[in-house]
Amino acid sequence: MVSKSIPKLLQEANEVKKALEEIGENVPAGISVAEMTAQIEALENIIGELDAVNADRTRLVNRKAEQAKVVSDQIVKVRAAVKGILGADSSEYDMVGGTRASERKRPKRKAGGTK
Question: What is the model's pTM?
Answer without folding.
Answer: 0.62
